[in-house]
Amino acid sequence: MAEQQRPGRRPTMSDVAKRAGVSRALVSLIFRNAPGASEQTRERVFEVAREIGYRPDTAARTLASSRTKTLGVLLTIRNPFHADLVEACYAEADRLGFDIVLSTTVPTRDEERAIDALLGHRCEALILFGPKASAAYLTQLGREYPVVSISRRVPDAPLDVVHTAEAKGVRQAVDYLVGEGHRDIIHIDGGTGPGSAERKRAYRAAMRKHGLADRGRVIPGNHTEDSGVHAAEVLLAEDALPTAVLAANDRCALGLLGALHKAGVKVPQEVSVVGYDDSRVAMLSHIGLTTVHQNADELGRLAVRTAVERTETPAMPGRELVLDPELRVRGTSGPPR
Amino acid sequence: MAEQQGDAETSGGSRRGDRRPTMTDVAQRAGVSRALVSLVFRDAPGASDRTRERVFQVAEEIGYRPDSAARMLASSRSKVLGVLLTVRNPFHADMVESIYPVAERRGYEILLSAASPSRDERKAVDALLGHRCEGLLLLGPTLPSSYLAELGRKLPVVALGRRFPGADVDSVHTAEAKGVREAITHLVELGHRSIAHIDGGRGPGSAERRRAYRAAMRKHGLTEYIRVLPGDQTEESGSAQAKVLLAEGLRMPTAVLAGNDRCALGLLDAVWREGLQVPGDLSVVGYDDSHLAHLSHIDLSTVRQDPDRHAALAVQCVVDRLDGVRDGAEEFVLDPKLVTRGTTGPPRSSGIMSA
Questions:
Q1: What are A72's strand-pairing partners?
Q2: Beta-carbon separation of A102 and B114 below 8 A
Q3: Could B295 and A121 be called an inter-chain contact, meaning their C-beta atoms sit closer than 8 Å?
Q4: In this structure, which topology does domain B4-74 adopt according to CATH?
Q5: Strands B337-339 and B301-304
Q6: Taking CB atoms and an 8 Å limit, are A87 and B291 in contact across chains?
Q7: B92: distance to nearest CA of chain A, Å?
Q8: Chain A: residue whose CA lies nearest to B239
C-alpha cells in the first residue's frame, strides 16, 4: 500500500520515514515541529526530505499522517485512585501537546468494548489503568497499538508497564506493624485486582521473615469498599479480633474502617488498619489512613511519557517501569493494646 | 439517511440473511478489532504489514467493499455524544454508568472528558468538540450562562443538575426544593428542631437547596433554629463542619442536612471517630443517593436523585434535537425521593422515644 514506491508519484511522509530509518509518526512529529525527537534525528529527516523532494503540505499532512495527538485512557470511573491517575495524566499530556479521551468499564460494558471505543476515536496510544483483560488479549492489543498498562504486568507482551514495587510496599507495612508490636496481622486479599497476587505473596513472605507464618491469615476480598465491610463482618463474628489488618487497597480499608467504627471498635487502639494506594481519599484529614503510598502523579506522568514515546517508536520491546512505594503512617495505626 | 449503513455496523452482531458484509464481519473473521480494520482501510499507520495483508485477504474472501466506511467518513455525523464530568464525584460516576447503555441503545457512542485541577471545564468541553461530538451532556457544570448560551448555539447541549435560564440548552434536574422539604419534614416528624444545613457553595443545586431549607424550617415554625454552615460539596467540608459542631457540645444541633452525600460522608466519619452515635447523638441526611450512600456500613439517609432517569432524559434531549424533533430549550424536572436509612432517628432528648 503506502509503502510501495510508484515511479513519478509525489514523495510521501512514509517515503521519508523509510529512507531515514525512523517511524512515520516521528517524521510527522518533526514536520509539526513538536518535541520528542533528537536534534540529530531532526536533521537526518530534513536532509532525507530535501533529497527526495518531500514537501509537507498542511492539509494533506494532517489527513495523511493520521495523527490525532490523542491518548486513550481506560479506567474504572468509581475508583478514586484512578481519579488521581487521570488528573496526573491530563497534566502531563497537556505538557506534551496531547489530549486524552476517557473510556470506562461499567457493569454493562466490559473492557474490550471500552477499549474498542477508544480505538474508534483514533487514539494513538492506549493507557490502561489496572486492566483485567486476559494476557492473550492484552498481548494482541500490544501488537496492534502502542499500549501502556498501569499496575498490571503482562509478561512477555509487547507493551509497557508502569507499576509500583508491590512487594516492597507490603514489606514496609508488615515491618512497621511488627515493629509496633503486632503479631496477629491479617491481610484482606484483592482478588483479581491489579497487584493483588504480588501483595498477597509479599504479605506471606514478610510474615514468614518475622517468624509469624502461623499467625498469617488471608481473608478473600477485592478492591471495593464492600469487601472491607465483609471482612469486618467476618472478624467481628469471631472471638477475638486481630490487632492489625493490611487491606487490599484504600477502598477496602475504608469499608473496613467504617464497619469497625460503626461496631464501636476503636481504631487504632483495638485494631490498626493499613491501606494500599494512598488515594486522595486516604489523605483526607478525617480519615487519616495509614497506607502504602503509590505515587499517582509519577505513575500517570510516566505512563503518558511512555505512551507518547511508543507512538513514535512502535516497535520497541515491552518495558517495565517500577516505582518505589512508601509507607505513610497516619492515624489508623499504632501499637497494639 | 446516509449513515444507515454505518448504524448497522456499529450496532454489530445482528446478522441478516444475505446482507452486505460489513467491517465488523471482516474484523471478526480476521480476528482483529473493528477499529483496526477501519485503520487498515484508511491506510493509516498502526497495523503491521502482516495484519494488513490478512485483513485485505479476508475482505476479498467475504466480498467486503469499504465504501461504507468512506461514506461514514464523508457524512458529517460522528454518532458520538460527549459527556463532561468531574472525575471525583461519585454521583457523576453513577450517571456515567447509566448514560452508556441508554446512548448505545440509541446508536450513539459516548466520549468522556473530565474537568480536573489542571484542566478546567472549558478545556474539557473543547476536547469533546475536537472529537466531533454531535451533542454534549454536561454533568453539574459550573460554567457561566453566557458560555453555555454560546455552546448551545453550536450544538445540542443538555445540562444535568443545573438550569441555565435564557440559554438555548436543555436541562434535566431534580426538584431540589421538594427533596429538601421532604428531608426536613422527616426530621421534624422524628422530633428534631435544631436542624442545621451545610451549604454546597457553588455546587449545582446548592442555592436551591439552601433556599428550600430556609423555607422548610420557617414553614415548621423553626425560624430561630435556621443555621447554614459554609461548605462546598466535598468530604473535607463535611469533616470541617463536624469539628465546628463537635466543639459546641450540648448546644450542637441534633440533625444536619448535608449539601450532598460526599459532605455527609465527611461529616459522618468525623462524628464516628469522636465516638458519637449516629443517629442517637446526631442525625445526618445526605443528598444524591450516590452508590457510596448505600454501602452497608454507611447506610445513609439521603435524598435520591435517580441517575437512570437523569441519563435517559438527557440522552433523549440531545438525540431529539439531533433528529430535529424539537427546537427550543426544555427543562425536565424530576421528583426526588427521600430514602430513609440508618443515619436518621429521633433525637435522644426528645420525648418521642418514651412511648
A1: A101, A126
A2: yes
A3: no
A4: 434 Repressor (Amino-terminal Domain) (1.10.260)
A5: antiparallel
A6: no
A7: 9
A8: A286
Q: Does domain B176-305+339-347 match CATH 3.40.50.2300?
A: yes
Three-state secondary-structure class, residue B120: coil
Coil, helix or strand at residue A290:
strand
- Chain A residues with CB-CB distance to B48 below 8 A: 143-144
Q: Do B109 and A117 touch (CB under 8 A)?
A: yes
3-state secondary structure of A212: coil
Q: Best mutation site among A18, A77, A129, A313 for testing chain B: the one with the most B CBs within 10 Å? A: A77
Who contacts A195 (Cβ-Cβ below 8 Å, separation ≥6)?
A: A130, A151, A152, A163, A164, A166, A276
pLDDT one digit per residue (tens) for chain A, 337 residues: 344 444 446 677 778 888 888 887 788 778 766 667 788 888 888 888 878 877 665 333 333 346 778 999 999 988 888 999 999 999 999 999 998 999 999 888 889 889 988 887 778 999 999 999 999 999 988 988 899 999 999 988 999 999 999 999 999 999 999 999 999 999 999 998 888 999 999 999 999 999 999 999 999 999 988 999 999 999 999 999 999 999 999 999 989 998 898 888 999 999 999 999 998 777 665 678 999 999 999 999 999 999 999 998 877 889 999 999 999 999 999 999 8
Alpha helical stretches, state H, A76-217 = 80-95, 111-120, 135-144, 166-180, 196-209
The reported pTM is 0.74
CA B124 to chain centre: 16
Give contacts of A 91-150 with B, CB under 8 A: 91, 94, 99-104, 106-109, 115-117, 119-122, 124, 143-145
Minimal Cα–Cα distance from A334 to chain B, Å?
Answer: 16
Q: Determine, for residues B116 and A258 on separate chains, whether the beta-carbon distance falls below 8 Å.
A: no
- For A33, counting Cβ atoms within 10 Å of its Cβ (0-12 exposed, 13-18 middle, 19+ buried), the class is exposed
Q: What residues make up the domain containing A153?
A: 70-163+296-323
| CATH no. of B80-174+306-335 | 3.40.50.2300
Q: Give the whole-angstrom CA distance, residue B55 versus residue A173.
A: 51
ipTM: 0.73
A230 within a domain of the structure (yes/no): yes
Nearest to B296 among A94, A104, A229 (CB): A229
Distance between CA atoms of residues A93 and A206, nearest Å: 38
Grid cell listed for B150: 454560546
Which chain B residues contact residue A80 at CB under 8 A? 88
Going by the DSSP 8-state scheme, the letter that residue A289 receives in this structure is: -
Nearest-CA residue of chain B relative to A113?
B33
Q: Are residues A111 and A159 in the same domain?
A: yes
Q: Are B287 and B302 in contact (CB under 8 A)?
A: yes
